[in-house]
């Protein structure tokens, strides 16, 4: 068991201070918590703004639960003298600091990297921002949607029929940026083993999205900017009772698809007998195969395609994914009771210990949930903590 715990919680004993709101930076800190670090999130007494985005249950929304599970929550007004002093004390003893915001904001609070490293030279300080620390756009406000549009991601996510650039329907930019930030911290911790100094890590939503889009930028260069459909007629198809996705990566896949459609002639038709030809004549091809797909149910097509090793799947909605036999068998999203929010499906993050009901590492705290505990550990008496709460410096959750 000890060996297993050391693998599941390799960061046990690591102290992380998070000074951020939103999703990207908090997701990075949450990952550190899932690997065993003690993460203290400093949150304004009135709450992180993400708690107001989407449907709220108690103090929680979906966007406040996922990036905050496993943390301890300290409510502090960092603009107050006492709250700021408390934050600086915690920063001085932290191994890692995760910060987010426009460049210079945290420094104006006395919590920037150069200020912290004077008393804590081994600190690893990761700063997550929209456009990074330099350049003409550093002060621009950035959200996931703003970066999807800026990066070109929406331009390659156009509808086949309407040609409209579509936003990806989840916060892919924020989520991915949090993962990139986490991997950078992990590498820095490894490098710091034999060094006396930590480092500053600059992570931006812009650079993270560019990394995701890297093959597309190369493709743009190789094709002289001309867009090209890579694997026509891959896409979404309406069946008699739902939707399914069909794709192909080899010409032999197209032959098998034509056989399943009972249209072997399409495989040898000069308009459709290669990836290039199908891309050039896609409208004509779709006019032929869409009516064919609508003739059968999703279940019937899925069974037929699986028998013939065709790359396809029914298009699940969220509800059907949660009850899918593979998802259930692998315990991919167990229900975990969240404080003030009730049972919630918490997706198992690859490589971490599975979420478990009743495990603090699987729960997202409400604002100020651990204020009393953390401040007491710093030497504040119950009376002093109550006074700080009355002054609005902190909030102590019931």
Question: Can you describe this structure?
Answer:
It is a single chain. α2 crosses α8, α7 crosses α9 and α8 crosses α9. This protein folds into 2 domains: 278 residues, Crotonobetainyl-coa:carnitine coa-transferase, domain 1 (Rossmann fold), CATH 3.40.50.10540; 85 residues, formyl-coa transferase, domain 3, CATH 3.30.1540. The radius of gyration is 25 Å and the shape is elongated. The longest helix has 20 residues. 32% of the residues are buried. The mean pLDDT is 94. The chain has a 7-stranded mixed beta sheet, sandwiched between helices. It contains 19 helices and 12 strands. It is α/β, with parallel strands linked by helices. The chain is 40% helix and 14% strand.
How would you briefly describe this protein structure?
This protein is α/β, with parallel strands linked by helices. The chain contains 19 helices and twelve strands. The longest helix is centred in the middle third of the chain and has 20 residues.
């Amino acid at each position: 068991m000890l060996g297993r715990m050391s693998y599941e919680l390799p960061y046990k004993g690591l102290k992380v201070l998070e000074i951020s709101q939103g999703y990207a930076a908090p997701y990075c800190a949450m990952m550190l918590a899932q690997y065993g670090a003690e993460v203290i999130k400093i949150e304004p007494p009135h709450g992180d703004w993400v708690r107001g985005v989407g449907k709220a249950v108690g103090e929680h929304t979906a966007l406040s639960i996922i990036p905050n599970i496993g943390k301890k929550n300290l409510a502090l007004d960092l603009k107050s003298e006492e709250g700021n002093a408390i934050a600086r004390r915690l920063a001085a003893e932290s191994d890692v600091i995760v910060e987010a915001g426009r460049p210079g904001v945290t420094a104006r609070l006395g919590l920037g990297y150069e200020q912290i490293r004077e008393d804590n030279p081994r600190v690893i300080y990761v700063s997550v921002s929209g456009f990074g620390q330099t350049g003409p756009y550093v002060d621009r406000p950035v959200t996931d949607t703003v970066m999807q549009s800026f990066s070109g991601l929406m331009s390659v996510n156009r509808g086949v029929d309407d040609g409209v650039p579509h936003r990806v329907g989840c916060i892919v930019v924020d989520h991915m940026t949090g993962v990139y930030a986490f991997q950078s911290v992990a590498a820095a911790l490894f490098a710091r083993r034999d060094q006396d100094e930590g480092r500053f890590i600059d992570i931006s939503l812009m650079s993270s999205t560019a990394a995701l889009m890297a093959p597309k930028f190369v493709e743009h260069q190789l094709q002289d900017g001309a867009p090209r459909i890579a694997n026509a007629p891959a896409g979404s198809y309406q069946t008699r009772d739902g939707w399914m996705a069909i794709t192909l990566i080899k010409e032999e896949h197209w032959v098998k698809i034509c056989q399943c459609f009972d249209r072997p002639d399409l495989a040898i038709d000069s308009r459709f007998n290669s990836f290039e030809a199908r891309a050039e004549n896609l409208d004509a091809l779709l006019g032929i195969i869409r009516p064919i797909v609508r003739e059968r149910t999703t279940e019937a097509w899925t069974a037929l395609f699986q028998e013939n090793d065709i790359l396809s799947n029914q298009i699940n909605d969220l509800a059907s994914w949660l009850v899918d036999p593979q998802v259930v068998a692998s315990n991919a999203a167990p229900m975990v009771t969240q404080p003030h929010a009730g049972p919630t499906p918490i997706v198992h993050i690859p490589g971490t210990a599975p979420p478990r009901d009743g495990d603090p590492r699987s729960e997202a705290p409400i604002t100020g949930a651990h204020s009393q505990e953390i401040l007491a550990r710093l030497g504040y008496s119950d009376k002093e903590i109550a006074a700080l709460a009355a002054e609005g410096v902190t909030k102590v959750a019931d």
